[in-house]
Amino acid sequence: MLGIPTPLPAAIAAGVLLLASAGSAIAQSATTTTIATTTTTTTSTTLLPHPFSAATRSCVRAAKRALRACGHGATCRTDYETTYSKCFASGSGVTCAKRCVGRETTCITSLPTTKKTCRKACVTSRKADVLACRRIANGDTLWAGGDASCLTTAQGTFDLCRAVCADSIVDCRNAIKFCVANCANL
To answer: How many Cβ atoms are within 10 Å of 173's Cβ, its own excluded?
Structure first.
């Protein structure tokens, strides 16, 4: 009896998850889910962050320009955090923005470690995929192209995984967009 090697379904699932995460890292879209019962309907929606007010948008752009002009100096990021948070309504808006920009800074600071861990996971997954490909019995029709197709898929999954790791900063940038959407504007 022919069976699917145990690591192979896990490798396929990992590839699907990587494809899904790559798409979500690049583009955001509105999603609507409707759950119906015999008497009621509930709808939940994930929307893109709301646009800033004109005053907040102008202030945020100026803060970002100042950060780019400053470069990578020791106080540049700290000055940016302070200036950026002042672009929101005093009180709770400033506190909320400080928290969000602080999280972004932490995310950006930890990128080297995050990327290293991510790349190690890609290599581990690739080893498991290649091992699973080598376990395919001769003449098995699980993969239309046999071992070559399996190895090509394993390489494609590895390449996609590495691309997701390389674009980890996108996650930091998207996180702040959604975080500051909850902060009161000027």
So the answer is: 12
